[in-house]
Amino acid sequence: MCERYVFPDQAAAEREFLPASAWWSFTAKYNVAAQQYVPAVRWHDGQSEAVMLRWGFIASAPEVRAPLPPPTVGLEQMIDSPMYRGPWLNSQRCILPAAGFYAWQLTNARYRQPFFVHLLDRSVFGFAAIWDRSEGEDDDVIESCSIICVPPNELMMTVANTDDGMPAILRRKDYHAWLRGTPVQAKAALQPYNPGGMQAYRISPRINSTAPDDPGLVRPAG
C-alpha cells in the first residue's frame, strides 16, 4: 500500500508531465499524508490540466461513501466497487507526481522499520490515481483522489514483507493511455513496476510521525 509519499517541487513536476494548463501551486513535500492536498494531472476539455486534489477518495454519491476517505484502492476493488465504478467508467483518472514513497517492514522484534523507495532512472514519476467531485455539508465542492495499488513486485515483497500491494507507478509511455485511453487501455497500464528500476533503503523512524517535513526524512539510516 502507500501510507505516505514525497512529491517534487512544481517546476520538476511540470517538466515531467508538461500540463497544458497549470492551476496548481505547491512546493516539494517530504511527508505527504492522507487528507492533505496533493498535485495531480488529469485530462479536461481536450487538454491536460494540473490541479490540487485532496488525497482520500470522497465519492460523489453519499450512499456509497466510506466512513473514512480511503487514500488507496486495489485494482479489482476499483473496478467492482459501487464507490469507484462510476469514476472509473467515466475516465476520471489522474496522475499524482511523486519523487518516492515510504514502506514499513515488520521485523522479527515486531518493530516497523521504515524504508524509502524511489526509482533509479527518474527523479520524478507518477502514481496512477482515480478522482471524483463531491459536495460537503456546507455545499463546498471537494475534488479528491485515491492512489491505485497493484500486486507487489519482488522488491516490495521483500521490503514490506506483505502482499498488501504497491502503488501503481506509471511508465512514461503509459501516461497517455492512463489519462486518455479507454478503460481497457488504462487497465493495461496498471502493472507492478520493474523491481530492477527501483531502490529501497532504511531510513530514520522520524517518518513514523506526520509532523516532520524535511529532506532529512529520505536520508539513509546510519
What is the CATH T-level topology?
hypothetical protein yedk fold
- Main sheet: strands, sense, barrel: 5 strands, antiparallel
In CATH terms, what is the architecture? Alpha-Beta Complex
| Uncertain regions spanning at least 5 consecutive residues | none
Overall 3D shape: globular
CATH class: Alpha Beta
Give the oligomeric state.
Answer: single chain
- Gyration radius, to the nearest Å? 17 Å
Mean pLDDT: 95
Name of the CATH superfamily: SOS response associated peptidase-like
Can you summarize this structure?
This protein is an alpha+beta fold.
Description of the structure:
- By secondary structure, the protein is of the alpha+beta class.
- 18% of the residues lie in helices and 36% in strands.
- The strands form two sheets. The protein has a five-stranded antiparallel beta sheet with strand order 3-1-8-9-14, with helices on one face. A five-stranded mixed barrel has the order 4-5-11-10-7.
- A hairpin with a 2-residue loop joins strand 4 and strand 5.
- The longest helix is centred in the first third of the chain and has 8 residues, at 10-17.
- The radius of gyration is 17 Å and the shape is globular.
Topology of this structure?
Layout: E1 5-7, H1 10-17, E2 21-22, E3 29-32, E4 37-44, E5 47-55, E6 72-74, H2 75-80, H3 82-89, E7 93-98, E8 100-106, E9 112-119, E10 125-135, E11 141-150, H4 154-160, E12 166-167, E13 169-170, H5 175-180, H6 183-188, E14 198-202
Parallel strand pairs: 2-5, 5-11, 6-11
Antiparallel strand pairs: 1-3, 1-8, 4-5, 4-7, 7-10, 8-9, 9-14, 10-11, 10-13, 11-12
